[in-house]
Every structure is written in structure tokens, then in C-alpha cells.
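Support request from a user on the community tier.

User writes: "When I paste my C-alpha cells into the form, the page sometimes reloads and wipes my input. The last time it worked, I copied everything first. Here is what I submitted, just in case something in the input itself triggers the reload:"
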């Protein structure tokens, strides 16, 4: 991503970098003089583009207090109580669940579990009618 950012900056056009990489690497030298949108602020990306096109740099890095859960889709950040969150959103009628983090593959290394254990625990909570996509 660093190489791509440098290449894009060389065009001298406004640049917005969005997602988990800039979120986890705020001090990255290549992120100087570009607008940055973290995952939790992705709904503001159009607003950030508009401001950036006017010549301003935007850092949309502050986390939201909570993320609204839609009836059809939920994006859930990996946290300790993830399985409980899955149970709650399924009970609310959510039909599609995504899990997201800066490094999903490293999940659980700090607490003595791993990603397959997490995924099996989540799948065990999904409705047996197979109407919920994970």
C-alpha cells in the first residue's frame, strides 16, 4: 500500500486513503498530506472526498460511540464479546454478518485462542434455517 500511496501522491491530485491500513499506521510517512478515513468512519467517505477536492486534508480517525445495526446487514468489529453480539444481531433479524479488524488472522493470539475457534463459535450461533449469511 505504501508504494501505491507514493505513486498516487506523485500525480499531485487530491488523495483519500481509507480502510484499516491507514487506521493502524497513523504515523506512516506516506500518509502525510493525504486525507485518511478509518473503517468506522467509512460512511463519511463521500464527505471526506468533497472536502479533499476543495484542497483540505481530512483525518476522519475518531471512533464512533456505537455503530447502528441495520436489519439486513451488520458489520461487527472483533471484540471479546463477539459471540454475544452475534447472538443479539441474529435475534434482531440481521441476515448478513461481517467481522472486521485490522488483522483478523491474528485474532486471539493474546487470549490463547485462534480464528478457527472463533469462527466455529460464531457458526454455532447462526440460525439452522441458513437464512443468515456470515
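"...and here is what came back when it finally went through:"
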Amino acid at each position: 500500500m505504501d508504494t501505491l500511496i507514493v505513486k498516487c501522491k506523485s500525480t499531485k491530485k487530491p488523495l483519500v486513503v481509507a480502510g484499516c491500513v491507514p487506521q493502524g499506521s497513523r504515523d506512516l510517512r506516506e500518509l502525510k498530506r493525504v486525507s485518511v478515513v478509518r473503517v468506522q468512519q467509512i460512511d463519511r467517505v463521500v464527505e471526506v472526498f468533497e472536502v479533499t477536492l476543495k484542497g483540505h486534508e481530512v483525518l476522519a480517525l475518531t471512533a464512533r460511540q456505537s455503530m447502528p445495526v441495520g436489519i439486513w446487514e451488520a458489520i461487527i468489529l472483533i471484540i471479546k464479546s463477539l459471540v454475544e453480539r452475534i447472538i443479539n444481531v441474529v435475534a434482531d433479524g440481521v441476515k448478513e454478518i461481517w467481522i472486521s479488524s485490522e488483522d483478523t488472522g491474528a485474532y486471539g493470539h493474546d487470549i490463547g485462542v485462534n480464528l478457527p475457534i472463533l469462527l466455529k463459535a460464531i457458526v454455532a450461533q447462526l440460525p439452522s434455517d441458513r437464512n443468515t449469511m456470515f
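Agent notes: The reload is a front-end session timeout and is unrelated to the input. Confidence is low (pLDDT under 50) at residues 63-73. Residues 2-60 form one domain. Escalated to web team.
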